[in-house]
Amino acid sequence: MTKSLHVGLLEGQAPPRIRHAPSVRANAWEDVSDLAASLGLQLDAWQEEVLRAAMGERADGRWAARQVGVSTPRQNGKTMLIVARVLAGLLLFDEQIIIVSAHRQDTAREVFFRLVQIIEDNPSLESRVDFIARSEMREFIRMKTGQEVRFKARSSGSGRGFSCDCLLLDEAQILNAAAWSAILPTMSARPNPQVWLLGTPPTPQDDGEVFTRLRHVGVEGKESRVAYLEWSAEPTDDFDDPATWAKANPAYGVRIDYEAIAAERAAMTDDQFARERLGIWDEVAVKGVIPDPAWREQADATSLAVDRIALGVECGPDLAWASVALAGQRADGDWHIELDEDQHTKGRGTAWLVPHLESLISANPQIRAVVVDVAGPVAALLEQHKPGRWRFKNTRIEATPVKVAELGAGCSRVLDGIVTGWLWHIDQPQLTAAALAAGKRALGDTGMWVWSRKTAESDITPIQAATLALIGAQMGRPRKPARKARSSGKVVILS
Hints:
Blueprint: E1 18-20, E2 26-27, H1 29-38, H2 45-54, E3 56-57, E4 67-71, H3 78-91, E5 97-102, H4 105-121, H5 123-126, E6 129-133, E7 140-143, E8 148-153, E9 166-169, H6 177-188, E10 194-199, H7 209-220, E11 226-230, H8 242-248, H9 258-267, H10 270-276, H11 292-297, E12 307-315, E13 322-329, E14 335-339, H12 353-363, E15 370-372, E16 382-386, E17 389-392, E18 398-401, H13 404-420, E19 423-424, H14 429-437, E20 438-442, E21 449-453, H15 461-474
Parallel strand pairs: 4-10, 4-11, 5-8, 5-9, 9-10, 12-15, 14-19, 15-18
Antiparallel strand pairs: 1-11, 2-3, 6-7, 7-8, 12-13, 13-14, 16-17, 17-18, 20-21
Helix pairs in contact: 1-2, 1-3, 3-4, 13-15
């Protein structure tokens, strides 16, 4: 490819490589842009493009997009975009509570300082402000109408205090599923909520499951209440060509110049430069891990576990549903996984779970363990009755917890068993759907990984439960789920 320093009209005008937006009846984006301009904030073309996708309204006046995702490399002007959306929420849309959140408090404070500057530069706007709290870690702006803008750093897994009309989540590549599942219910009670996720492609060390799922929705283009825009290069583009840089950076030639990117290119590895400056995502994160042909090949309607039988339990977000799975060794020495499919119904809750486990264990004393991930939602159903000893609340059912390393090894074992042919299943529709929908999320820099959802709609609890069951089946000496006596010799049949 011919290198060109001058990329012409593409400078500051690059369209998003991926764009998905819902259909709308009306659009307020021009009002937002005009408001910003009146306050001295001139938006770039790409920022207006995001507003065009995000600010569409349905016939009932609600936002067409309840969730808005924006992926673009750093230093392209995401802060100014957030500022414009905050100002619009206060002055145009009568939003009562707006929250700006980032992984780091410093990032949230950038928006705060820019807003304060705009307020102080505009006397008419300043006259509408009641109070500005400037204490570190407690910044907020209160209007005389009672409206507030709050600035928060996200704590680990916590969504407390995030109830608001508009939530702007910067550094969305570092937003874990636990925090997200805690945040969403707080928004559901608002009459017309909108959540923005803005960030860059996650690194292998980032817990970027939530942002990855949203991106996958944008790539598929099927979800009617999501807007997603991404500025990025193709993995096959020439990383050394300024035209590629302009394509991935919509503020190239406006906020970012050739010299700055050239210096980054010299200092970064190809992988780093692709992610940080060209916005290229790791596609593995949104693809199914288990190959469809291999999974189908391991289907055996007659497969049966006869020895070393264990159960795995996994709950969905907010305990909205649960999965129970079984694993054990077959008569031929291979291994078997199976979903309690009659019980797995999304949206059913978990009230049925403990009585069902009691029934299974009572009828099948040969069950050697009930395995759980105490770092997941199931923890709400457990109590630690002794150091390192867990059981289901108000029962004598012992739960065997897995360590992070055990969980990572178990996921790899399931994949290996399917691909190499020693792990079998009976082709249950819900287990199959979960297995083929599962992506993977890296566990820091350990080289290990665990299952993750490809889309917000994906239900992977069946394959997670099956993985836990297989871990229990293959453990040396797991804890027995109950102290009942002798085995009846029965074989557990779940479905």
